[in-house]
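Here's my example:
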Amino acid sequence: MAKILMIDDDRDFLEAGKQILEAQGHAVVAASTPGDVEEKIKAETPDLIFLDIMMQQPDDGIALAQKLFKAGLKTPVVMLSGMSNVTGYSYDKNDDVLPCEEFLQKPIDPEVLIQTVEKILS
């Protein structure tokens, strides 16, 4: 199956996502800070990346996604955020501001997580 890199500062979310995806046969690598990501991408060569928007700084995920795509990253990225639950602001795909394949709002239903992986990697 696929190798998936999950980047989120919420360790509970990482553990839950890892369990769900590994139960489907995927290999999951986790990172909890943006600083770990570039090294993990080079070392692990993931097939798919899940990236939280807000980590240590409110725009860590957005800045990291933009940096990775400007550097030529071809790996599909799914952006994640629970911000709309708090602020009412709804994020969505935008190739100029938020380069990604999909955008998912947290909390994420396990079936939606699985379907998203299948859809992007099929």
User: Anything to note?
Assistant: The longest helix spans residues 11-23. The longest strand covers residues 3-7.
